[in-house]
Design goal:
single chain; binds FE2/S2 (inorganic) cluster; Sufe protein. Chain: A; alpha+beta; 20% strand; globular; 3-stranded antiparallel β-sheet
Amino acid sequence: MYNEKVMDYFYNPRNAGELEDANAVGEVGNAQCGDIMQVFLKIEDDIIEDVSFRTFGCGAAIATSSIATEMIKGKTVDEALELSNKDVIEELGGLPPAKIHCSVLAEEAIKAAIENYKEDEGKAH
Ligand code: FES
């Protein structure tokens, strides 16, 4: 059902767990399955210096969010906002159709975390 790359990210998730010095957090739920995704960002001067995720989701949610964290690390917040679930699926080499909805969690949680960052920035200035 899952390709090798997806399995690798599921068994060896990169950037899993809470980020101690995060300055932005995003949390979203998946309406279809009820699963939850959290993304932690450490942003300095609009650059994503570090990123991690935590999920109460399935294997596809773990794999997609893990690779998504790698894809946005070192990027600007505006570049990270452009990341779509389609980019993530492509990077993973595909997902079974029934699991496409899981990949939306990563994209949405990243967007929520960046919004959280921008709100705080707005308050600070
Ligand atoms: Fe819920 Fe995959 S089934 S995130």
